[in-house]
TrEMBL record, chain A:
Subcellular location as annotated: Periplasm
PANTHER family registered for this protein in UniProt: PERIPLASMIC NITRATE REDUCTASE, ELECTRON TRANSFER SUBUNIT
GO cellular component: periplasmic space
Assembly description: Component of the periplasmic nitrate reductase NapAB complex composed of NapA and NapB.
One of the GO biological process terms: anaerobic respiration
UniProt cross-references to Gene3D superfamilies, sorted A to Z: Flavocytochrome C3, Chain A
Signal peptide: 1-23
Protein name in UniProt: Periplasmic nitrate reductase, electron transfer subunit
Pfam families on file: NapB
GO terms assigned for molecular function: metal ion binding; oxidoreductase activity
Keywords of this entry: Electron transport, Heme, Iron, Metal-binding, Oxidoreductase, Periplasm, Signal, Transport
Record note on modification: Binds 2 heme C groups per subunit.
General function of this protein: Electron transfer subunit of the periplasmic nitrate reductase complex NapAB.
Amino acid sequence: MKKIIMTFITGLALVTASMSTMAEIQSLRGAHALDKPSETLDKRKQIKQKDGFERSYKIQPPMIPHTTEKDRISLKNNSCMKCHSEKNHEKEKAPRIGDSHYIDRDGNKLSDLSSRRYFCTQCHATQVDADQLVENDFVGAK
Amino acid sequence: MGKLKKWCSSMVFVGIGVGVLLWGGFNWSLELTNTVEFCISCHEMESTVYQELQETIHWSNRTGVRATCPDCHVPKEWTHKVYRKIRASNELYHKFLGTIDTPEKFEDYRLTMAMNEWKRMKSTNSRECRNCHDFASMDLDKQDERSAERHDPHVWEVEDGIEPSLTCIDCHKGIAHSLPEGWEEAVDNDPLLSAGLEALQEVEKE
């Protein structure tokens, strides 16, 4: 009998404790009602910036100063190379892909874009005029 | 004599009636084959190039104007249209042969098909592009700086009535469908398609 009462009391204490913690936890939706549609974010367009963005640190892959919505990188073709390749960059007045992009993982210099550098958007990103997620006073290295 | 005259005049009316029916029927069926629905009724078109088109600006854009298959691939003028339709019998032949009936076969054949279309465009001075895109109504001030800069000499060629040095398709390849593998080399090695492109290289370098 004593055992049963003890178990009951412990159980009650646990339930009370967990309920009080639950009250502190808040959903990521905040106080937004469950049956309401989620808040929509402002639509942002990809930015075009003449002469490109400045780098924030020394070896930063340059950010893309134009839209790339219509560009496609596939197994057969890389549409970035229409302008940025060795062959086309002068005609298109576009920056040529860096020398490092011709070197394979064994350090051999290739005549064409190395396969490990093929997926441009892995390092180079388009930009939108977005608000800062967290207020900060970051200044890039000059 | 009176009987013959009557017969003749009735034959004329019958002839006109039959003519209108045949002519109308011919043009009606011609237009029936000039729709997206007709084009994508073959899976060869529906599962490949049609899907690619849907990701491009010719499919969806700010102003909601859409270009579909026949707008670019079939001439608008009647004689050119009928000529193109007759040429299309070759495409029917290959449909029955099954030349491109799998995605793999389509990819193997993509360069050949693209080259055919580019050559057609180049030899007609990109006639189908110009059904909608007319230099006379193109406002270069509203374009991106680099686009305007590159269009400018060609606008003046048209203005001055000079033979165009380049045509739309020379630069605007792969705008509605994926580019075939090895297209750049293929274009450079083709005498028709590479014509005028070297001049561009030099002009832009200056």
